[in-house]
């Protein structure tokens, strides 16, 4: 179930096929230990575990690990490490560096899941709100815990900055509250929407190309052009997978910085 699954004929489309079938969560192992309490293993679970396993493998590989002259693998790991390190330091200062391991783990976890979803007949967990919103809400709760542990009730002053006229206080507080609680929504929605949009584009385009190639004759020859476009879109989607993981982490560290410093 992924972006390449919808390469089907028009007959398949007439039998109820949908481009959204690639996002369907399938129960692979039914597990109901307490009645309706469902902890079944799904295709989403499997690919999140695969991403976790690949992440562990990345940082436990002995390939040029710690060599003075790094090889290609070590150079890649160092680039990822320094990129996230610089992002955290620039946006949250030295105080935010204590959360650098969390940011690096989050970035690589999202990146691996996004890239896995580009492999034919796989599944992309980040295309589902259950994953993206689960992460964003968890981050939102964590930021609030950090903020209140650091500032106590003084943290509430961020909704009413000093020097503001009392007449516009109700309006300003309402706007600040809406903006504040919109953070986890926008964070999760941005990730899921961008990944879903890319997969749907692939699905529609590859289905169109397949039908052109099956038509034969000059139509099949003309289908080679959109097939070439698919190659460049694949490169674009790889970039989107990396950018969305980076943006998610960037916004997370910005929200953390807001928890450190009031208005």
- Summarize model confidence as the mean pLDDT: 81
Helix content: 55-70%
Walk across the major sheet and give the strand order: 1-2
Low-confidence stretches: 1-15
Number of helices: 8
N→C terminal distance:
46 Å
User: What class do helices, strands and sheet pairing give?
Assistant: mainly alpha
For the secondary structure, the number of strands is 2
What value does the Rg take, in angstroms?
A: 23 Å
SSE order, one letter for each helix or strand: HEEHHHHHHH
Shape: globular
The gist of it:
It is built from 8 helices and 2 strands, in the order αββααααααα.
Give structural notes.
The chain is mainly alpha-helical. The protein contains eight helices and two strands, in the order H-E-E-H-H-H-H-H-H-H. Strands 1-2 form a two-stranded antiparallel ribbon. The longest helix has 47 residues. It is globular, with a radius of gyration of 23 Å. The chain starts with 9 loop residues before the first helix and ends with a helix. The N terminus is likely disordered.
Secondary-structure map:
Blueprint: H1 10-14, E1 27-29, E2 41-42, H2 43-58, H3 72-96, H4 100-116, H5 129-151, H6 169-215, H7 217-222, H8 224-260
Antiparallel strand pairs: 1-2
Helix pairs in contact: 2-4, 3-4, 3-8, 4-8, 5-6, 5-8, 6-8
Using brief descriptors, characterize the structure shown:
single chain; 263 residues; mainly alpha; two-stranded antiparallel sheet; 8 helices; disordered N terminus
